[in-house]
Design brief:
A: 172 residues; B: 387 residues; seven-stranded mixed β-sheet; five-stranded mixed β-sheet; globular
């Protein structure tokens, strides 16, 4: 099911952990979605000097996190900003189709960590996202209720089909 | 290193006697059991011999058993068959929140055809209250379908009580017993069941062959319309080789039932104690008493099931997970949600199933590797670090 590269990163994940006193922190996903990632970075001279990840999720999610940290390490911030879901999936020799969205949160976490670093530098208050719940990945994309699999839309407070309370939010 | 199979519920290994019987049957070049000539007659005789053995396993009489292609077909046959046969009498069906998809989906199909359903909820251990079934009955209820033992959490339902209610109200009662038949003793008369589904691959028989018990006098429309096979109840040429294998598996299973259960109970105790001693922050799912002896459902907090399965697989240990990430649909298990597990805990759920050939050594090695795996994944988990 997974490519050799995915299995390699899953079995030998690079840069596991959390940097104490990090310059930037990015955290995406939640257990309701099935995956959660936290990326911490240390920046010097506009370069990502160190990067670490923590991930709750499937094999693909762990491999994605590991690959993202490897791709970003040593890069300038501008270079690291080019890292996307697509380039991570490509570097992993592709992900199974059904995992392309849900487990591929690594690039989002990295971009969030970079943004957090830049916000801190410019003295901007960190935009806090306090909503807990299931989320869509883009505005166009429909997402599904994790309980009954019915289609849901951004802004809805509960699933129209099964009635369970779920807050939909956009991930980025 | 030999693979340790702790995923018996998905399928279990063929008994050597079953393999031999099937190989011998292949060598014989039987005819079609429906043919009047000798080649056909011999095949028909083999099927009837197998039917007797299968019937004994659930204390039924042979003419109440039909062979099907799997447990899913048996469930579809029972549910759609009763609904179609009784469509003029009523169109209401009662089921439970924790049934297998092989029951839930045919019922969903019937809903699109205008049938109405009530699904009764379960308690925190996954048990249906017979009283809830009674309350759900309406004048137009024609079928109650409740499973015997759950395939994800192992909980055994109060089938006898529910069957009694169905009998008193003159409603047909179907029981999906796929995970129970061949594991625990089943007596269809004692339980008072009208229709019972089961499959050979749950008791060391071949995949691709199942059975449906149909109590005499039960109205049932065929699922497969065709020739007059299986006493006109199921069209289609029989899977002779599979049926012969199922017959042998039934015979041996019945003979070994008591010793197997004792073995399974020992393994379960060893496994349960070992898990408690070795891993913290775990939840055992299912009923502590009314439960299958060959299954443990375990939610391991702060980590996700598919990654556990992949890591164990690297160490040649096969185990199943109910994590949404490992299901094709990426959906949470409806059974775990029904018993009140939260979404994160459902994600870290393993279903550990074992059988007659599982050894204490297998369990020892599994516990050792699982502990290591859980430690590795928890070190990586942001949920565990936050704990």
């Amino acid at each position: 099911m997974y490519s050799k590269t995915v299995m390699d990163h899953f079995k030998n994940p690079r840069n596991v952990g959390e940097i104490q006193g990090a310059d930037g922190i990015g955290e995406v996903g939640n257990p309701i979605c099935g995956d959660m990632m936290k990326i911490t970075i240390k920046v010097a001279n506009d370069r990502i000097k160190d990067i670490k990840f923590l991930t709750f999720g499937c094999g693909a999610a762990i491999a994605v996190s590991s690959m993202v940290t490897e791709m970003a390490k040593g890069k300038t911030l501008d270079e690291a900003k080019q890292i996307s879901k697509e380039s991570v999936a490509k570097a992993l020799d592709d992900l199974p189709k059904n995992k392309l969205h849900c487990s591929n949160l690594g690039a989002d976490a990295l971009q969030m960590a970079i943004k957090d670093y830049e916000n801190r530098k410019t003295g901007k208050v960190k935009e806090q996202d306090t909503t807990e719940g299931y989320h869509c990945y883009t505005e166009e994309e429909s997402c599904k209720c994790p309980y009954c699999d019915s289609e849901m839309h951004a802004g809805e407070k509960a699933c129209a089909m099964c009635g369970r309370k779920i807050e939909i939010k956009l991930s980025m | 290193m030999n693979t340790i199979n702790l995923d018996y519920v998905s399928s279990n290994p063929l008994l050597p006697e079953v393999k031999n019987a099937m190989i011998e049957a292949i060598k014989k070049d039987y005819g079609n059991p429906s043919s009047a000539h000798q080649l056909g007659e011999e095949a028909a005789e083999e099927i009837e011999k197998a039917r007797e053995k299968v019937a004994k396993l659930i204390t039924a009489s042979p003419d109440e058993i039909i062979f099907t292609s799997c447990g899913t077909e048996s469930d579809n046959h029972a549910i759609k068959g009763v609904a179609f046969a009784k469509k003029d009498k009523g169109r209401h069906i009662i089921t439970s929140d924790i049934e297998h998809n092989a029951v839930l989906k045919p019922i969903r199909t019937l809903r699109t055809l205008g049938y109405d359903t009530t699904s009764v909820s379960v308690d925190q251990f996954g048990r249906v209250k017979p009283d809830d079934v009674l309350k759900a009955i309406r004048d137009d209820t024609v079928l109650i379908s409740i499973m015997h033992a759950n395939n994800e959490i192992g909980t055994i339902q109060p089938i006898k009580e529910i069957a009694q209610i169905a009998r008193e109200k003159k409603i047909t009662f179907h029981c999906d017993a796929v995970t129970a038949v061949g594991v625990v003793p089943i007596d269809v008369h004692d339980l008072g069941i009208d229709l019972l589904s089961f499959a050979a691959n749950q008791f060391n028989g071949p995949s691709g062959v199942g059975g449906l018990y149909i109590r005499k006098g039960t109205s049932l429309w065929p699922l497969l319309d065709g020739g007059g096979q299986e006493n006109k109840r199921r069209g289609g040429t029989e899977n002779l080789i599979g049926i012969i294998g199922m017959g042998v598996a039934s015979e041996i299973t019945l003979k070994e039932m008591e010793s197997r259960i004792n073995h399974l109970k020992r393994i379960k105790e060893r496994l349960t104690n070992g898990l408690k001693e070795n891993i913290d922050d775990i939840i055992f799912n299912g009923h502590p008493e009314y439960s299958l002896p060959n299954l443990i459902s375990l939610s391991i907090k702060y980590i996700e099931g598919e990654s556990i399965v992949l890591m164990l697989d690297e160490e040649n240990i096969a185990v199943a997970t109910k994590s949404a990430c490992a299901s094709g649909s990426l959906r949470a298990s409806h059974v775990l949600i029904a018993i009140g597990r939260d979404y994160a805990d459902a994600q870290g759920t393993l279903v550990i199933t074992y059988g007659r050939d599982t050894t204490e050594n297998d369990i020892g090695r599994f516990l050792e590797v699982l502990k290591k795996t859980v430690d590795t994944l928890r070190k990586m988990s942001p949920l565990y670090q936050k704990k």
